[in-house]
Amino acid sequence: MLARQLGDFAAAVSAAEQPSAARQAARLRLLDTLGAGLAGIELGNHRVLQPLLQAAGPVRVWGEGEGRSARDAALVNSFATHSTYLEDGSRYTGGHPSSVVIPAVLALAQERGAGGEEILSATFAGYEVFLRLGRAIYPACVRMGYQSTAILGAVASAAAAARLLRLPGEAAGHAIAIAANLGSGFKEALKTAQTQPLQVGRSCEAGIVAALLAQAGHPGAPRVLEEGFLPAFGGLVGEQGRAAIVAGLGGECLLPETYFKRHAGCRGNHAPVDATLDLAAAERLAAGDVASVRVAVDTVTRAAAIEPPADGKQAQFSIGFSVALALLKGRASVYDYRDEVLREPAVQDLLRRIEVVVDPQLDAGYPQRRGAWVEVTLGSGRELRATVPNARGEPEDPLTEREVREKFRTLAQPRLGARGVQRVEETVLALEASDGGKLGALLAPAP
Length: 447
Known about the structure:
By secondary structure, the chain is an alpha+beta fold. The protein has two domains: 2-261 and 398-442, 2-methylcitrate dehydratase PrpD, CATH 1.10.4100.10; 267-388, CATH 3.30.1330.120. The longest helix is centred in the C-terminal third of the chain and has 28 residues, at 401-428. Helix 1 packs antiparallel against helix 5, helix 2 (20-42) crosses helix 19 and helix 3 packs antiparallel against helix 4 (98-112). Helix content is 53%, strand content 7%.
């Protein structure tokens, strides 16, 4: 039974037994997730949830002063993290394990004073379940209209929570089985980006609920993954498919395969932005030189794009807007995806000259490669072209540790202040010497 196999793994996984490079990869993903979440709080993206929260408690909403219950804090922190579309992700699952695993882990760790070693172990458990089941259902689930992060989030959060609660293998398997019923979300929701992160936040919270139910002795359906979850979301079924999910489980660590984001907005925008920036740098292009732009991506990426965007939130899913930012501003910052930037005359003028198309040849490599090409026609009639096989930040072209740390500082400083950012960074990068309570205390807003 697959849920039990994954539960046995989650119960036994130990960060101490992971290679040092994998441990550092986990610490950096914790830091990166905190940066994304703190930016979401600073932007006020989480405020839509505040009237709905009822349970006060000891767990901090990142960058806020008040405490909430572990479930409410996980919900809000997950929502805020995903709302920025700056968290890490996996091109093999089309999803973002960090925004469902890490808020759940840190909420329970703060509530229970769990040590840094336990935080890392739980993070490994959640990522592994997310990435292994995700490979089985992606990209079929997206073609069926689902958002993979929301679908996978509950089972991944449940595995992580079960590890932090130190549940034995049987109970951890029940937590995963219960959670398999609780994750849901649709790609169509991305068109309402103000509320879309709720399906991810609820999936994160649901994993905690499932783990607590399993801790109390309640069972999940033993074969719900094989007979329900996988076939429902278009996943691999049969003996061969199930064997692929658990192949190397407990030996091969998949966490380092996730990418870091260099730019804001949906990951599908990033290869086009990288190609545009490369072309602009090589040719010393200015936006005024450009007569027209043609951008090509694969079918799955184009299906998720919103062209043209109606507002700054939809712009996070607009390849055309992101390319326009790259040409006009030389960047695609989270603070650029705003209504007032979208309405700028120069942006609107350039958007009308950008066409986003599908190149079937790019489908052939997907998802092992998620590349793009950009063709720019200048006012002089000269044509330029740049191609990238994958966006920066993938394992083949990773961000450096320094770049990840600088990204965190840029995102977190408006909320925590310079001293607060330094203390959080130092604590996360030496996490085994700390615990969830101490880290939660450091996430207070700057005075």
